[in-house]
Design goal:
GO terms for molecular function: 4 iron, 4 sulfur cluster binding; class I DNA-(apurinic or apyrimidinic site) endonuclease activity; DNA binding; DNA N-glycosylase activity; metal ion binding. The two termini are 25 Å apart. The protein has 10 helices and no strands. By secondary structure, it is mostly helical.
């Protein structure tokens, strides 16, 4: 995709949604971090349903640690892989208290050293909580980037590296949110809604839907 087309693509997405953000509910960097860890192989709606009950009771590392692993499980048992996630969140809370004074670190290295936190989670936290122009690549962004021809790649890291190169600086802060929302609601996995897509004419996808 040519640079002029990339600029046009993001200009249209920005016009639709000038101030995009995550659909995960949170009020602090710690709440966002926990929500993103819980969201692996789960929906934002499902995570929000669980944290809506959890956070009024415990929304700090100290409070969640006080709940304990079994106590935490009672709040997140509706989320997939909740046993492993509870273990990671408890370990994450302990590490935040021991090494970061209970605060969420602002560097990728420190974030990725936390249990249950990989590159994608670190990118989401850096971008959404701290305003760093990172681009976290999930299944939606991977699909949109490949289908449209914006940033084709064989794996998520290849797509991320390509996006870092092709996305103009003025769009980089919000690119993650625009692409994920586009993939979630328009460029869907099984049947993309091409007739209602604002970037249809820029897209390289050969099997566009007609209705």
């Amino acid at each position: 995709m040519k640079r002029a087309e990339v600029i046009e693509l993001f200009s249209r997405l920005r016009e639709l949604d000038p101030h995009p953000t995550t659909e995960l509910a949170y009020t602090t960097p710690f709440e966002l971090l926990v929500a993103v860890v819980l969201s692996a192989q789960a929906t934002d709606v499902g995570v929000n349903k669980a944290t809506r009950k959890l956070y009024p009771v415990a929304n700090t590392p100290q409070a969640i640690l006080a709940l304990g692993e079994e106590g935490l499980k009672r709040y997140i048992s509706t989320i997939g892989l909740f046993n492993a996630k509870a273990k990671n969140v408890i370990a994450l809370c302990r590490l935040l208290i021991e090494q970061h004074d209970g605060e969420v670190p602002r560097t990728r290295e420190a974030l990725e050293a936390l249990p249950g936190v990989g590159r994608k989670t670190a990118n989401v936290v850096l971008n959404t909580a701290f305003g760093v122009p990172t681009i976290a690549v999930d299944t939606h962004i991977f699909r949109v980037s490949n289908r449209t021809g914006l940033a084709p790649g064989k794996d998520v890291r290849a797509v991320e590296d390509k996006l870092e190169k092709v996305v103009p600086a003025e769009f980089k802060q919000d690119a993650h949110h625009w692409l994920i929302l586009h993939g979630r609601y328009v460029c869907k996995a099984r049947k993309p809604d091409c007739p209602h897509c604002v970037i249809r004419d820029l897209c390289r996808y050969r099997d566009k839907t007609a209705e």
